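_Full entry_
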Amino acid sequence: MSTFNVPTRDQVSENNQAIFDNLNKALGFVPNLYATYANSDTALENYLNFANAKTSLSTKEKEVVNLAVSQVNDCIYCLSAHTAIGKMNGFSDDQILELRAGRASFDNKLDALAKLAKNVTENRGKTDANVLENFFNAGYTKGNLIDTISLVGDKTISNYIHSTTQVPVDFPVAQPLEVAAV
C-alpha cells in the first residue's frame, strides 16, 4: 500500500488553510484524519458541514452510533477519537466498550440505537426487522431512523478513509475490543 503523508497547512488549498486555522482555534490541533480529507479541495469542508449538520440525535446518541459503526468497520482511528469524545460526553470506559460492541445494558433506548447502528453497518443497510422494531419500540421515530442511517454513512466514510490511508492516530489509542473486554 502506498504511504499517505498527513498534509500540513502549507500543502493544502487556501480554503482548507482557513479550515485548519478554525480547527486549531477550536481544538488546539488539526486531527490527522481531518487533514487527510484536505488532500481534496472540497472534501474537508463538505465532511465538516455534514458532520455538524442539524440532526434529531443528541450528541450522546451520535457517539453511540459513531462507536458502534467504527467497531464494525474496524477503524482504530475513529475508535480512538470517539472513545475520547465519548468520555467527554459522560460515558465511562465500560460503557464505551459496550457501545463499541453494539449494545448498552445501562440504557434501554441507547441499547436499541447501538444495536440498530451495528446491524445497519454489518448488513449494509439490510436491517433486521426485529432490530428495527426494537428501535421504534424504544421511542425512536422514522426521522431518527433516517438521521441514524445518515450518521452511519458519515462515519463509514471516515472509517474507509483511514482504512485506506492509514494515517497516524493522534488520539490515545483505543484497545482492541477483545483485549479490553478481558
Residues 142-165 form the longest helix (24 residues). The chain is about 65% helix and 0% strand. Residues 37 and 44 are 5 Å apart (CA to CA). The chain has a mean pLDDT of 95.
